[in-house]
Design a protein that fits this description.
This protein is an alpha+beta fold and 396 residues long. It contains 13 helices and 14 strands. The protein is globular.
Length: 396
């Protein structure tokens, strides 16, 4: 299945082990929120949008698709998203239908966590399964939004990572090393100086190894002053500071985060390596390499796409469908098979491979892969519909 760009699946990624941490510290009447965005996609952005009539202006951070992964509005309300382990979530009848940009709309319309809770309570949040949100207001109150529950809090110091608080009885037992390191530092002492906040962010930062991925950017928000300090690729010696009020007095703008930190050698290496890999993957849609599965493997090795290709499921999937639309069935199937190889737990990869076999009229192989897909994701209506079509055809 060709996943739409703004799907909730895309919002929190296909991988549910992506580390991310957010801390909240309230002291002496001031509240600070720090976030480490840990991922592979180096194409990060920070952007500013004025509020339209009845809305608040805000700044956002995320990737180049401009799906907001976090941000702050002019009332000092901050939010950030996490990926968490999926679990069984029941659909809530009588609620409004969830839509992917709901959380951004919350930032546009709400000035505190009580208003956030009231707005989100109107919606069925079960599609959030696999994700979680944290909202913090400038007096220190915070709201954790899970797929089936919302929890208010008012602790002066709070640290959250890739786990659902409602499902966690004792945070000391969590096997999340970076979270535990940060928790211990916060237990030892609490400060709101920038030196302490950057130390805490550094303690929580991630490096995935081989110069590829980890903490892509860090944001430290001063909710009372309406400012944000931005750091790139876990280097806390250099920052760019933004004043939201000043930014909203100017035209809306989008800034490319890596281009703001040209002297960060490690970050620039990752930025270049990632984009070279994406371009190589895209080239498969217009070349003959994918016609031969062995040549495809040789291409991946020659272009040094491993391990990056293991986190490019959507990119590879798009190439497969581009080939499919051109009628290059063998190449498309080879690309879809490649995605299954690298993402054996992705229902969507099996669904896409089945689409390829379906177009090639190899119905038995299509049926096998559709069944595999719906077994992994019973809510895959496309897969169920295709299975019915094939079984009806076979029964004739």
């Amino acid at each position: 299945m060709k996943i739409k760009l703004l799907s909730i699946t895309f919002l929190f990624g296909f991988l549910h082990a992506i580390p991310c941490t957010v801390y909240k510290i309230t002291k002496n009447g001031k509240t600070f929120v720090g976030n480490n965005e840990d991922y592979w996609d180096a194409n990060t952005r920070i952007w500013f949008e004025k509020g339209k009539a009845g809305e608040y202006g805000a700044m956002y951070v995320g990737q180049d698709n401009l799906v907001a992964q976090g941000g702050m509005n002019e009332k000092g309300l901050v939010f950030d998203g996490f990926s968490v382990q999926e679990r069984q979530i029941k659909y809530k009848a009588g609620k409004l239908k969830f839509y992917p940009t709901l959380f951004k709309d919350v930032i546009k319309k709400c000035q505190n966590t009580a208003e956030v809770a009231a707005m989100l309570d109107k919606y069925d949040l079960s599609p959030l399964n696999g994700g979680m949100l944290l909202y913090v207001e400038k007096n220190g109150k915070y709201l954790v939004v899970e797929a089936d529950t919302m929890m208010m809090g008012n602790e002066d110091n709070y640290l959250l990572s890739n786990f659902c608080p409602s499902q966690t009885s004792n945070v000391q037992d969590l096997n999340i090393p970076y979270y535990q390191k940060g928790r211990k530092l916060m237990e030892q002492r609490i400060d709101t100086s920038m030196s302490y906040l950057t130390q805490l962010s550094d303690t929580l930062h991630q490096d995935f190894g081989k110069g590829f991925g980890g903490t892509l950017y860090t944001t430290i928000y001063d909710l009372n002053e309406g400012t944000v300090n931005l750091y790139f690729y876990h280097d806390y010696r250099v920052t760019v500071k933004f004043n939201l009020k000043n930014e909203l007095n100017n035209k809306d703008r989008i800034l490319i985060i890596p281009e703001m930190f040209p002297d960060n050698t490690a970050g620039q290496f990752h930025y270049s390596k990632w984009n070279n890999a994406k371009e190589a993957v895209r080239s498969l849609a217009v070349s003959s390499v994918a016609n031969d599965s062995l040549a495809l493997d040789d291409f991946i090795e020659a272009e040094k796409l491993y391990p990056m290709i293991k986190v490019m499921e959507l990119d590879v999937n798009d190439v497969g469908y581009a080939l499919l639309e051109k009628g290059k069935l063998t190449a498309a199937i080879n690309v879809f098979k490649l995605n299954v190889k690298y993402f054996p737990k992705s229902w969507n990869c099996y669904d896409s491979l089945a689409d390829g076999y379906m177009k090639a009229k190899e119905y038995s192989l299509a049926l096998f892969n559709y069944k595999k897909s719906v077994e992994m994701n019973p809510k895959n209506e496309h897969g169920h519909n295709q299975i019915r079509k094939i079984e009806k055809r076979v029964s004739r």
